[in-house]
Amino acid sequence: MTALREAKPAAVTRRQSRVVVVTLLCLVAVLVIALWGVVAGSSSLTGADVVRTLIGAGTPGQQLIVVELRLPRVVAGLLVGAALGLAGALTQTFARNPLATPDILGVTSGASLGAVAAIVLAGGSYSVGAGLLSLGLPAVAVLGAMITSAVVYGLAWRSGVDSYRLILIGIGATAALGGVTSYLIAHAKITEAAAAAQWLVGSLSGVSWASVWPVLICLAVILPIALTQSANLEITQLGDEISTSLGVVVQRHRLLVIACAVVLTAAAVSASGPVEFVAFVAPQIARRLTRTGRPPLLAAGLVGAIIVTGGDALGRGVLPGEVPVGIITAIIGAPYLIWLLTRRTEREKL
């Protein structure tokens, strides 16, 4: 018995050490991917050119390319990916289901509907930093996401929230909101419809520094709040009754987690459009790398940043033409979703 009691803390310590190591390695990978993102593009720049430019020793042309064009795009990709990865980790953990992501629960569609409505009503400018949209789009996206999440959560409530019912209602809400979004595009002017359709693909091509600040502020505010819920997220994996007996106010905890995920998703969508499957794939990759029972929050955010920034750099620096990052993440994420749905084992059931 004594050996068993000593083995359990040792196993916990090894698991925590692995989480720390994986998180640090992901941070290093983020820095490498960010440098590649600034270098990648039609203009031939080396890593040394980028470093010289960032310390103020570059030519005026290099300053324009690096500081005004590529750097905000890379920073936005990092923030969008981190926000989506963290949001996915929160929703998957509280629902105890890897399918419970903002994409499937309707949060992304609600934010997209709000943003498309703002684009159409503002005259067809899809750049977040342009005119009225620089002030209105993030707020409208958050509003759309919050209304959607409140409706989905309310409809799923039956003396508690069942993850399967939540997912099914979210799928229905996603379809309905997608129909309304299509209606707005179909009845908009040509310029407005083209701008909204281009934004819905999920792209960082129209990003400026004005697009970065709302996501940065949301992430800086929400991340500490989400981390304070990490212990409660761990406890709630044991079930509602045990969590309540251990002092967790389950429903208040869930509402706080949902609010954090909604704000993060809406901020990301307002900056880049709906970059699909990042919130679904990133937490699961982080969980498998760390070998933990639930997605670790920081590691999931870093993996999301790697996916979005790397996908954007791949789309404009390697593939022919410029492929939006939303298309690349969909190509990666859809097969993974199919694999997860078909892989039903006794160890990990959906």
From TrEMBL:
Protein name according to UniProt: Iron chelate uptake ABC transporter family permease subunit
Transmembrane domains' residue ranges: 20-39, 74-92, 104-126, 132-154, 166-186, 206-227, 297-319, 325-342
Principal location listed in the UniProt entry: membrane
A molecular function GO annotation: transmembrane transporter activity
GO biological-process terms attached to the record: siderophore-iron import into cell
Signal peptide: none
Pfam families (alphabetical): FecCD
Entry's localization field: Cell membrane
Superkingdom to which the source organism belongs: Bacteria
Species in which this protein is naturally found: Lacisediminihabitans changchengi
CDD domains documented for this protein: TM_ABC_iron-siderophores_like
Family recorded in the similarity comment: Belongs to the binding-protein-dependent transport system permease family. FecCD subfamily.
Cellular component, GO, one term: plasma membrane
InterPro entries the record matches: ABC_BtuC-like, ABC_transptr_permease_BtuC
Keywords, in A-Z order: Cell membrane, Membrane, Transmembrane, Transmembrane helix, Transport
Membrane topology, record value: Multi-pass membrane protein
Keyword Lipid biosynthesis among record annotations: no
